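Section: Multi-chain targets

For targets with more than one molecule, the full set of components is provided together so that the structure can be written out for the assembly as a whole rather than chain by chain. Components appear in the order listed by the source. The example entry contains two components.
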Amino acid sequence: KNEVEQSPQNLTAQEGEFITINCSYSVGISALHWLQQHPGGGIVSLFMLSSGKKKHGRLIATINIQEKHSSLHITASHPRDSAVYICAVSSPYNTDKLIFGTGTRLQVFP
Amino acid sequence: DAGVIQSPRHEVTEMGQEVTLRCKPISGHDYLFWYRQTMMRGLELLIYFNNNVPIDDSGMPEDRFSAKMPNASFSTLKIQPSEPRDSAVYFCASSSWGHGNGAFFGQGTRLTVV
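Its structure, encoded as tokens over all components, is:
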């Protein structure tokens, strides 16, 4: 079993829909990261969080440490949000080593 | 700053050949990470450096893989000899303060070993 699991693996949505991507992990962590990988391959760090919630534009990331679960929400989705969203966690013993989930491929249609 | 620069963007080589991937981190960043991405295993950390010193290379799959960082502005990942199972996208990323401050990724090098 992977230490970091994401669901769903694939997601399609119509423009304007509210989107939720989930990440569950089975190890102790110091922080959880959300990354976005564009169709061209480039990877961008979206959030790093260790508790509570963070918001950036239309993106909201939440984490529940007790339940070992995080969600990434996209409000008013747009075709340009189409990408692979990757969850990663860092160990309390080495914050520089990330363990990655396998990603959620999101396609938003106009 | 131009961001993290990787070269080449694409590399096709024959099995048994030596392959060298290059990375120029963002100026001022003191951490550099090499990752490999495959369909089967997703993203995996291979090795990372802090102030040009390798800190953890436990993700390097075999002795065929080696990485160096001779100075703060340049790093290489070498595979010798290459094998078809090494085919993947290799990413370099740099950051200040490790991953605690977010990391900036290069565009990746897509390696195909035939």
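The two ends of chain A are 36 Å apart (CA to CA).
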